[in-house]
Amino acid sequence: MKKRNAPHSGPPDKGSFPLDHFQECEEEAEAYRICLNKELGIPKKCKEEAKSYLVCRMDKGLMAPHTMQELGFVEESTWEYEQKAREDLVRDIENLTRASKERVRKEFAKEHSKTNN
């Protein structure tokens, strides 16, 4: 006769994501869904709701405990950080364009003054 394994009593293995059969984190999940709907499906705009949902799952033993950094919640992955990086990039491009136009203008003026003398 085969021996059966004992049921798993701790949090699930890393990478598994068991269903919340008893809706223990339904309130947090609903807040996240509402945020996604409001933000047109952009998850980075709903980081706080996602964190709350994951904390609830960890607190209820529905997933193994992890730090938020381990779950990918770092400053560089926020919507605000990316928005600032895009704004900085646009500003840098505008500065390069201005500097380039100024160099061309100066070169043209220099060449023009040589031909007029």
From TrEMBL:
Sorted alphabetically, the Gene Ontology BP terms of this entry are: mitochondrial respiratory chain complex IV assembly
Q: Where in or outside the cell is it found?
A: Cytoplasm
Annotated source species:
Blepharisma stoltei
Record-linked InterPro entries = COX19
Q: Which GO terms describe its cellular component?
A: mitochondrial intermembrane space
Q: Where are the transmembrane segments?
A: none
Return the protein name: Cytochrome c oxidase assembly protein COX19
Q: Keywords in UniProt for this one?
A: Cytoplasm, Disulfide bond
